[in-house]
């Protein structure tokens, strides 16, 4: 076992090198985890095992968040806040306040994976059990499949614009009524397929290729968005730009407070996916301090600039085009310039490819590999998500602001409990102590075997928190639709993540104190990775 916070030394066991030789002979990237001889093959492969090296710097984490923020989905979600009836300064405040909350929670979820060098599903074995960890892994993986489809669909709209501009004859293929199937046109399928293949190609190259891609993708999008904002402001004239973009009924200050709080909650829900499995990336950080600095740069500071760009660009569309346009794809489409459409379209494609790979390809790759490490590799897990995304036909359910808000509420309801349980289990119950070798053993005497590989307290906490959180999203709208009530409580859905997170946290702490399952914290303590020992 290694010292706290220190990356494990490379393994020299014959099975690992034998596997490396085969992989290298096939021209594939070599696995980077250390599979110790004592690790059970039913729980370990080189993608899930503790890392040989942790090399990511603060810039790599910063670039990760730039790619995560600057997607079409990010701009559409931010723009949808105007439909709530908020003034621009209130939208800006909600965006920044929400991202500060995300920054705090990301640091919390980053630490256990960074100090142990293992991904999100593996660190969950310390709370759910070596087999029970498949519960949060499968839930998170399924959510990633849905989001992968959404982001690919949104990016495909940029490609459609390029096709229509440079090859007008393809307009016929964009007719869903004549050339459509399951709600999407033939041209839509072509563009979706192009992006599907491009993302798979980058993902297949491995984590280092992904790191290099996101290192320049985020800054590239920044440059184009700044140019777009400058162009629109120069066309409109600064004096003609009004920051009052509210599309809903005019709200008094008192009325705007609960709406602003809902907008903040929406921002947290939007980032709840990558926030939950951020350990998949923080494990590569060279130190926890480097991860925290990268989060500070990539979240509050980066998002503040992103928010300003969003508000200014949206504001400029009113005098330039005569209407408020919050979707950057539609903004670029309205510019009468072939070069602008080509540059803007390709930029948003790159932006969305970036977030899709880091947030929705890598997560299920680890999550599904965790289910059966010897049968499902990291690459196979990612491809399962890619194929599943098409089967969900995301274009049918993610095409308007109401759907965005409803989808994010349900997403938060599913993810919130898992986050609360992870934080309670690591920080409160386990006191930041993890015995890494025990994460990879099926020995009934192992620390994380619990009861047949499952911690019943964690499973029950998931149910006790998940059911009310999901109900908070589904029931208020259902009761209204069935006309069983005239009281509109649909606003509760905006807080589903917070409800689920809080209930999950409280449920696990209460169950563990009533009938402890996670124990042995003072036994072999010198062999544990102890997060409290880190100074930064």
If you consult CATH, what is the topology? Hydantoin permease
Q: Report the sheet with the most strands, covering strand number, pairing sense and barrel closure.
A: 2 strands, antiparallel
Q: Determine the fraction of residues in helical runs and give it as a percent range.
A: 55-70%
- Terminus-to-terminus distance: 22 Å
Classified in CATH, the superfamily is Hydantoin permease
Protein name: NCS1 family nucleobase:cation symporter-1
Transmembrane segments: 91-110, 122-139, 179-204, 216-233, 253-273, 294-318, 338-359, 380-398, 404-429, 457-475, 495-511
GO molecular function, one term: nucleobase transmembrane transporter activity
Membrane topology: Multi-pass membrane protein
SSE map:
Layout: H1 14-25, H2 58-69, H3 72-80, H4 88-116, H5 120-123, H6 125-128, H7 134-166, H8 176-179, E1 180-181, E2 184-185, H9 186-204, H10 207-236, H11 253-270, H12 272-276, H13 279-282, H14 288-321, H15 328-334, H16 338-371, H17 378-391, H18 401-429, E3 433-434, H19 456-481, H20 496-514, E4 529-530
Antiparallel strand pairs: 1-2, 3-4
Membrane topology: Multi-pass membrane protein
Pfam families: Transp_cyt_pur
Keywords: Membrane, Transmembrane, Transmembrane helix
Overview of this structure, please?
The protein is an all-alpha fold. The chain has a single domain, classed as Hydantoin permease (Orthogonal Bundle). It has 20 helices and four strands. β1 and β2 form a beta hairpin. α9 packs antiparallel against α17. The N terminus is likely disordered. It is a multi-pass membrane protein.
């Amino acid at each position: 076992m290694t010292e706290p916070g220190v990356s494990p030394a490379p393994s020299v066991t014959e099975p690992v090198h034998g596997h490396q030789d085969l992989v290298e002979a096939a021209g594939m990237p070599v696995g980077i985890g250390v599979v110790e001889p004592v690790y059970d093959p039913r729980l370990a492969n080189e993608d899930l095992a503790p890392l040989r090296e942790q090399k990511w710097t603060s810039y790599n984490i910063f670039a990760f968040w730039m790619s995560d923020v600057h997607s079409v989905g990010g701009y559409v979600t931010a723009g949808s806040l105007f439909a709530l009836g908020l003034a621009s300064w209130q939208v800006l405040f909600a965006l920044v306040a929400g991202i500060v909350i995300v920054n705090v929670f990301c640091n919390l979820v980053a630490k256990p994976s960074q100090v142990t060098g293992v991904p999100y599903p593996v660190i969950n074995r310390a709370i759910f059990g070596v087999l029970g960890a498949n519960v949060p892994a499968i839930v998170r993986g399924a959510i990633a499949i849905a989001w992968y489809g959404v982001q690919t669909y949104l990016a495909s709209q940029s490609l459609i614009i390029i096709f229509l501009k440079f090859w007008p004859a393809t307009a016929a293929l964009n007719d869903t009524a004549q050339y459509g199937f399951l709600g999407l046109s033939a041209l839509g399928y072509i563009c979706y397929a192009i992006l599907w293949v491009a993302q798979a190609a980058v993902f297949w190259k491995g984590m280092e290729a992904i790191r290099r891609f996101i290192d320049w993708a985020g800054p590239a999008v920044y440059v184009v968005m700044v140019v777009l904002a400058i162009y629109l402001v120069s066309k409109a004239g600064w004096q003609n730009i009004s920051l009052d973009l509210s599309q809903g009924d005019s709200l008094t200050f008192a009325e705007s407070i609960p709406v602003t709080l809902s907008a903040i909650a929406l921002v947290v829900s939007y980032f709840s996916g990558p926030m939950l499995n951020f350990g998949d990336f923080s494990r590569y950080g060279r130190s926890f301090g480097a991860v925290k600095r990268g989060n500070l740069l990539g979240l509050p500071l980066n998002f503040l600039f992103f928010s300003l760009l969003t508000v200014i660009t949206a504001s400029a569309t009113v005098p330039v085009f005569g209407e408020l346009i919050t979707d950057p794809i539609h903004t670029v489409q309205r510019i009468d310039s072939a070069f602008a459409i080509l540059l803007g379209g390709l930029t948003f494609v790159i932006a969305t490819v970036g977030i899709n790979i880091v947030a929705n390809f890598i997560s299920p790759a680890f999550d599904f590999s965790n289910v059966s490490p010897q049968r499902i590799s990291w690459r196979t897990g990612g491809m399962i998500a890619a194929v599943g995304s098409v089967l969900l036909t995301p274009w049918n359910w993610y095409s308007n602001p109401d759907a965005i808000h409803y989808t994010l509420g349900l997403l938060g309801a599913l993810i919130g409990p898992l986050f609360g349980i992870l934080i309670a289990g690591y920080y409160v119950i386990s006191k930041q102590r993890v015995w890494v070798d025990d994460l990879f053993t099926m020995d009934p005497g192992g620390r994380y075997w619990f009861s047949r590989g499952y911690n019943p307290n964690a499973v029950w906490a998931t149910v006790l928190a998940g059911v009310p959180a999901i109900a908070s999203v589904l029931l208020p709208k259902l009761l209204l639709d069935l006309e069983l009530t005239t009281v509109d409580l649909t606003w509760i859905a905006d807080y589903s993540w917070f409800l689920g997170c809080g209930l999950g946290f409280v449920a696990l702490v209460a169950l563990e104190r009533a009938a402890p399952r996670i124990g042995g914290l003072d036994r072999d303590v010198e062999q544990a990775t102890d997060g409290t020992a880190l100074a930064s």
